[in-house]
Amino acid sequence: MKDVAVGLNTGAGKTLVGLLIAQSLVNETRGKVLYACNSIQLVEQTRDKAYGYGLEATTYFSKEFSNQLYTQGKAPCITTYQALFNGKSRFKREEISAIIFDDAHTAENVLRDQFTLSITYSGFPTAYTQLLAEFRDYFHGAGQVSTFEEIAEQNSPRLLIVPPFEVKKHFESILAVLREADLTKNTDTLFAWEHLKDHLDLCCYIFSGGALTITPPFIPVRTLPYFQGTTRRIYLSATLNAPDAFARTFGKIPEKFVSPDTPAGACERMILAPILHDDVSDDIATTVAMVATRKALIMTPTYSRSAKWGSIATPPHKDAVTAAVNNFKSASPPAKLLLTARYDGVDLPGDTCRIMVIDGLPSATGSLERFMWEYLRMSKTLRTTIASRVVQSFGRISRGMSDYGVVFLTGDTLVEWLSNPQNQMAMPPFLQKQLQLCSELSKNLRPSEISGTIDRCLDRDESWINAYEGFIDNAQPLDAVRDTSIETELAISEAKFASAMWRRDYEAAAAALSSTLERADELSSSTRAWHQFWIAAATDKAGDSETAIQLYRRAHGSQTNLPAPEKEYEAGDGMAIHEQAKQAALQFVESASGVVECPLRMDAQLEPLRSGGSSNQIEEAIRSLGVILGISSTRPDNEEGTGPDNLWVFGETAFCIDAKTDKEAASVYQKKEIGQMADHEQWVLGNTTATTVVPIFAGPEVAASKSANPPNDLLVITREKLGEIAERVCAACRDVASTSIPLNLASNLSKEFERKGLLFHKILEEFGATKLVDL
Question: What is the pLDDT of residues 355-376, one digit of tens each?
Answer without folding.
Answer: 999 999 887 678 999 999 888 9
